[in-house]
Design a protein that fits this description.
It contains five helices and seven strands; from the N terminus they run ββααβββββααα. It is α+β, with helices and mostly antiparallel strands. A five-stranded antiparallel sheet has the order 3-4-5-6-7, covered by helices on one side. Strands 1-2 form a two-stranded antiparallel sheet.
């Protein structure tokens, strides 16, 4: 897609999948919030480094560099994915359609696959009931079965491939 004098990438997901991603990512953001407040901060246990608020940030930022060279950064705003090849993608709570303009399809798919892998890791580390208990503390019940979250992320990543 051409906007002005530049070429912009537009990630294409149908409306149903966009809505599914919005719901899933909102649920994941809540889950990460529970994970950082756990007795042993799960993001730190997973290998993330925490940067305390500062430089205009109102919350901590967690950063993890993967073996591939890709970088995942999490904060109360959302997820930033920086691929080793220089592309990237970002997700925040709310309508994802506008957020996908300019995102790399490959980077977004990699980010979603990483989310699936993280949820599988949580399952192994904390047991099957951990995520369900975490999401049960929300004021609104989860719309996606907590046990299905890794599969949902994988399915959305596959839809981008």
């Amino acid at each position: 897609m051409r906007i002005g004098n530049s070429i912009t990438t537009v990630v294409v997901l149908d409306v149903c999948r966009c809505q599914r991603l919005e719901t899933l990512f909102d649920q994941q953001m809540f889950a990460w919030g529970v994970d950082v407040r756990a007795e042993a901060n799960l993001l730190l246990a997973h290998g993330f480094a925490r940067a305390e608020p500062g430089d205009g940030r109102v919350s901590s930022t967690y950063r993890l560099t993967l073996a591939s060279g890709d970088v995942v950064e999490l904060s109360s705003r959302g997820l930033q994915w920086r691929a080793a090849n220089g592309t990237g993608a970002a997700l925040e709570r709310g309508p994802v359609g506008p957020q996908l303009v300019g995102a790399s399809t490959q980077a977004l798919a990699a980010a979603l696959r990483w989310c699936a892998a993280y949820e599988r890791w949580v399952h192994v580390e904390r047991g099957a009931a951990w995520r369900a208990r975490a999401l049960a503390t929300r004021t609104r019940p989860p719309r996606i079965d907590p046990a299905a979250m890794p599969f949902e992320f994988e399915a959305l990543a596959e839809a981008l491939s």
